[in-house]
What we know:
Layout: H1 2-16, E1 22-38, E2 43-58, E3 64-70, E4 77-80, E5 86-90, E6 93-97
Amino acid sequence: MADRVGSQQMNLTAVRRHDPYVADIVDSATQVAVYEYNSPASEWQKTDMQGALFVYKRSGPPYHSFMVLNRLNTKNLLQPLTKELEFQLQAPFLLYRTSQ
């Protein structure tokens, strides 16, 4: 139990370096890969974004977000959860679309 609490605190500290409004980690996955959909080619393309995923609560708006702490380079994915996001579960994939 002490190891789990220590690990949770380390993860909270790591995420807080990129988002100072982190209040609590809700869920996580140790390894994810991010793909982008290329509409003209009608195919998914793997990005240079892989690492741990954290879904967390924030102390300010927006009150929830998720982050992929990238192991391949210093660019992380930080995505606030807003009403504009569209989600679709196609196990084992979670797809989401932004206005961009």
